[in-house]
Design goal:
By secondary structure, this protein is of the alpha+beta class. It has helices spanning about 1-10, 70-85, 95-105, 115-135, 135-145, and strands at about 20-30, 35-40, 40, 45-55, 60-65.
Length: about 140
């Protein structure tokens, strides 16, 4: 099926330099009676970081960032860093995008938030490609392994 993707690449894939990347955060306040605690004290809410990649036609893909609690500014900075690395790639070059992001950050990003942001971009790319091809993202991920 990868050959089918290559044929479709000329027709359906959007190049990343025409795409918009945006990070945003959703906050869920925990009920007061929950009293959720950790070593730093009471956690009053859950914050989820999302990355949205929008193509020139207005279609978008969403990806969740792991470890987004209390890390707004680093996520925004990492998204800016990685989107510059990905300029010129096609949305369908998801594995290549991962390799480029990892290579650009190998000395400081072997675990933690940076990998979480890479994962969010990766998922958003799969989501966008799935919408473009009118296929579930999971079926595309299985084909590109």
């Amino acid at each position: 099926m990868i050959t089918r993707q290559k044929r479709l690449s000329k027709k359906l894939y959007e190049t990343i330099n025409h795409s918009k990347y945006k990070s945003f955060f959703l906050e869920y306040p925990f009920p007061k009676n929950l009293n959720y605690q950790y070593s730093g004290g009471v956690v009053e809410n859950m914050i989820i970081g999302l990355i949205k990649i929008t193509d020139s036609e207005g279609e978008y893909g969403l990806g969740e960032v792991t470890h987004a609690q209390f890390t707004h500014q680093p996520i925004i900075g990492l998204v800016d860093h990685f989107k510059n690395i990905l300029i010129g790639l096609e949305i369908g070059q998801i594995n290549h995008a991962w390799e480029k992001m990892y290579a650009s950050s190998v000395f400081w990003n072997r675990e933690g938030l940076g990998i979480g942001v890479m994962g969010g971009i990766n998922i958003a790319m799969y989501d966008l490609l799935g919408k473009k091809l009118k296929l579930p993202s999971l079926s595309i991920a299985r084909r590109t392994e």
